[in-house]
Amino acid sequence: MRLRILIASLCSFASCLLASGQEAGTCRDFRYRVATEPVLSVSNPAALSAFRGHISMAEVSFRKDNGKLIALDQSPDSYRAEALTESFMNLSDKISIHGKLSWSYFSGQQMGGPVLMNPYYNPVAFLESTELTLGQKNKETYALLGAMSYSFSPKWSAGISIDYTSADQNKVKDPRFSNIWMDLDLKAGVCFRPSDRLMLGLSLLYRGTVEQLRGGIYGTTEKQYFIYADKGSFYGTMSELTGDLNYIPVSTYRPMKNDFFGLGLQAAGEQFSHELEVLYRNGYWGGKSSSTATFFEFSGINAAYRGRMLKKAGDGMHKISLDLDYSLLGNNENIFRYVTPAGQSTRVEYSGQNHILDRHMAEAALSYVWYNGADSYLPRFSTGATLKGRAVFSSTVLYPFYRNSDTEVLSAEAFAQKSFFSGRSVFTVGIDGVFRTGFGTAKEDGSYAPASASGLLSFDNYLNRQFEYDTASAAGCGLSFTYTRLVSPRFVPYVRLSDSFSALLQAPRYLDGRSRNVALITLGCSF
Q1: Domain limits at 500?
Q2: C-alpha 450: how far from chain center
Q3: What is the pTM assigned to this prediction?
Q4: Number of domains the chain contains
Q5: Beta bridge partners of 281
Q6: Which among 134, 12, 135 is positioned nearest to 84, based on CA atoms?
Q7: How does DSSP classify residue 488?
Q8: Which of 29, 58, 138, 488 is deepest in the core (most CB within 10 A)?
Q9: Using CA atoms, how far apart are residues 359 and 19, in angstroms rounded to an integer?
Q10: How does residue 98 score in pLDDT terms, banded at 50, 70 and 90?
């Protein structure tokens, strides 16, 4: 693993050094340039045709997290190493490209609970039945993005982008779950420019994700392991981790598949961008053959809006951003049985479906940033604030029982950064603060008809911890320091140190701790 970090680091900085000799205009900080170029915030790859110039960056970073103020899928003691490089450039008057390559390695101690990499992404999740099996999890991720646009004329352009991510995660203690993640995001679009100040775009979207999962037990043991199947709001059933017929197999991988198909509309100009996306989603958990069961089938709709507005005032600039997201996801559980006719192999017979889950989630984020000295490599001073809100409403029906739940989370963030220029050196000091709180109903249980005892379980230990993490009031602050060296107009290295601390405002009831600290060091360059 250390060798991979070294190789990734050397490759990133080698690309930076080689590119420093290319012809380019005056260099500006990569992230600052991207944040203040409205056309670069549009996901339609055809919009790259409106970009002029060449901006690139390369970074390696190391992050250390400590503290027990964590969600169920986080670790109280973890580290993450990452290397990445990204570039926007014009190859000619007609062709523009965008590329990104990244690698990361995560290792976390005392992890258990959720089995899937992202337990909130799918309508069904799996949990370890006991917290006595906490152990180390390691995750390695590779990502590659390539996009290109071609201008047919001053008014018309077309583009395509491919964004691929793969990851593998392993738990180093029984039950030794192994996860393999693959994510392919394709976009194809066209743009029309009726004038120099307006660009209109249309894009077709496809995204496919597969997470393959299996459980494992090292050696021979008489100990039994059980898995909770969370069918919504930590309500579901328990099964033993054995063989390949239950929810999680032990000798083969089982896929959680998702497909998204959608359409995007864009409008952008010199000082604004607007984008609307709508996608249809469908997926399943299980196999798709006559001998492997499809346990769940689900579908839904995702809609999103992204808006950016810039306003220059002298040597300053105001920026307002608005992000809105909404998703509806429903889940159906298949009714089936395994049958083995005489002289034939075992097959699956389906007899219907039960609709067990409806989940609505809405998110909104409104932010404002003011840049002073917006025309330099970095603004001399910048400050801003962001307000965020998320609401999740879930209805789970495992007839005749049901569970309703809702969670609302609100947060406010603010930051300020000051840059001091001294010859070719730039010293940047930053401070930020955050406040978060929430409310809602963890669970509201009932039944549609009188019923005797059943095999259904409420995973209250996990439910209460996650609900408290989402809704308990917490506050935090952070400090950062960046040293930037303006070596030349085409090559600018920097080093950044930051540390942030957050804590609950009152003693926790279910969480194991009330504070968390995150330290980060980054070495990088813009070119």
Answers
A1: 2-526
A2: 42
A3: 0.91
A4: 1
A5: 260, 300
A6: 12
A7: B
A8: 58
A9: 48
A10: very high
